[in-house]
Amino acid sequence: MGRYKSVSTLLIVFVLLVLQSINQRASAQESGASWIGVPLGPSDTVNIWSGYRKNFMLEEVPATAVAKIAVDSKYWLYVNGQMVVFEGGLKRGPNPKDTYYDEVDLKPYLKKGNNQLAILVWYFGKNGFSHNSSGKAALFFELKAGSVMVLTDASWRGKRLVEYKTAPAPIPNFRLPESNIYYDAQIADSTWMKDVEVSPSFAEVLTLGKEGDLPWNKLVKRPIPLFKDFGIRKFETKDIITKGDTLVCKLPYNMQFTPYVRLTGKAGQTVKFLTDNYVHYHGSAENIRGEYITKEGQQQYESLGWINGHYLYVVAPNDVQIQEVGYREIGYNSDFVGAFHSDDVFFNTLWEKARRTLYITMRDTYMDCPDRERAQWTGDAVLEAEEAFYALDTQAHALARKWLYEVLDWQREDGSLFAPVPAGNWDKELPDQILATVGYYGIWTYYLHTGDKKILQDLYPRIQRYLNLWDKYPDGLVKLRAGGWQWGDWGENKDMLLLYNLWYYLALKGSSLMADELGKNDDAQRLKLEMAHFATKFNERFWRNGAYRDPAYTGKTDDRVHALAVLAGIASPAQYKAIQHVFLQEEHASPYMEKYVFEAMFTMGIPTEALARHKKRFASMVNNTYFTTLFEGWGIGSAGYGGGTVNHAWSGGGLTILSAYLCGIRPLSPGYEEILIAPQLGNIRQAAASVTSVKGEVTVDIKEHDKELWLTINIPEGTSGKVVLPVGQYQNVWLNNKRTKQVSTKPNKNKNIYHREDRSLWIAPGKWVIKAQK
Questions:
Q1: Residues 138 and 240 both lie in one domain
Q2: How many distinct structural domains can be found in the chain?
Q3: Which residue intervals define the domain Alpha-L-rhamnosidase C-terminal in the entry (predicted)?
Q4: Which of the chain's ends, N or C, has fewer CB atoms near its CB within 10 Å?
Q5: Residue 659 DSSP label
Q6: 143-198, pLDDT tens digit by residue?
Q7: What letter does residue 478 receive in the DSSP assignment?
């Protein structure tokens, strides 16, 4: 009996402790910040702007003061009259339910005594291809400044800012959650965010819920840096041309920016802000513009909805005197640190245009384009992420990580995946793009460049759930998966069954490598056996008369298929001559898939032919001096694909190949623990590249003259490098002016020994000059 009493006592104690813990958590939540809002009318549903104010006292500046800020959809933060964050917040949707929040260090902006907080909030109020609306405009703010807690609650003051309206039609197309901003300065209080005292027009706010409540749900920390604000720059006179009622202002390049103007005029005049991308190069769909209604006298205004283009058009009546026009570039916080240069101006221009196109398609997410859609099409992101590893600093890695987690965190209950995400009005799966994402060129390439093993641990099981959805023929090859859109690529002559099978094989390859890395030995063995069987059956079924073709396919031979077969390793070197013939005869790939053709030709060891094809196919957009960016298709507008934008980063895959294959810089093991330097110059005689890796800067400079080859290489600390010389018979090889020992034995990692069998030698960290003589 005593034993049962003891058990009963323990049970009662346990229950009491649980209840106490629940009460403590409830109390802690109740005392925390609230979601707050302002009263809205029944028609206030889309494009709602509101302002919030809070004053508080500090006895001293605290040692730390990090604010937690969440909104649906964007905010601008002022502390003591100084702008601290220009466009904070991320388009909503780390997953189908939750909301991102920012962390902002406010310590540099606080002072002893009275402090003023002002927050301007923009609620999109509609879904898009990059945004999942919560359906409710609100602000969440939490700051611990020493012993002082500043929390959004009923003590804040707020106001619906009616000066912000929606511009008349035409409205942006359905893919965009943003609206065209129409700002009426006649009814605006333009200083409310900088005034010391809170304006009497700001009234009590509504408390709408606590952290975790519907419809915002769990708050997820922003995984990328706050945007980079380049500040307002004024157009020089030489860059402004007057055409009737329009000032045509030339920007230095195609950029994301907000327009600024200082003017004098009568009240009630309309000033419009547009770009050449809005007027001429819009991708066959309405995108974003801004409108401003003047007040009487001297005034200045910045339109906060970002736009892009090569030219800003400011349209104003004659009696509006414009004294100054400017722009604020704002974009993803990453620097242009990678480099490429060669003795061929064409490829130098292509590389720089590709980087510019990449940067303009980075913001809340990777985007296909910055105008028509601003959507994270995941096949595009595969190419963009790889380009960023070569062209930008390591802060860009966070955007790739965010992309991969978002795609998998939006996985549906049945295991299927779709993109673009986050999205509130799109749910269609493009099977080929999903396979690219979860396979070798997506998550595995991210891991190779970053060494971020946690992402493999987190996403590997979900990837297997998706791959298990694919139906197979009795021979093990996969059937066409319907998904939501059997896309394959823009253009014609798509041998779809083969494209799907090859992307599936590359997904198996990625999974096999991940299983090895994670120590999942049974999975790794099973996947390797499946891949071997798959490759055999693929060749048996589809290789006929010197080309890969589905017997049921009636179009022209698909160059895309042959590129993927080479890159997958399904095509053997014995097939390369026939495949080379395909590449010389067939040109069906879009600029998106042309990257894989370019890479396949380098993989086959035909760099001269690869460069010639790429130059031929990209000539019109690279040689066009008007545009600093690359197009969606081979032409503009109706001559392109899908609307024909002039800024599509999927066209920049050549950047990757020039750095990774022509100059030969590639991670040989995850996180650049080992680095491959394997240049293939083709008919180029001089080329140089640098890459800012997670281990430091990797550089290579190659020169070839007559029978001599010179390589100057920098290998960062904590790594080792494998150098593979271009194809040729080298009689002598010098390393830092010392002739290396040459051996014909099986290559190994012994440093400073040249292996004739594969023309390789391993080098330690440091700067090295290699001279090779044929």
A1: no
A2: 4
A3: 664-733
A4: N
A5: I
A6: 999 999 999 999 999 999 999 999 999 999 999 999 999 999 999 999 999 999 99
A7: B
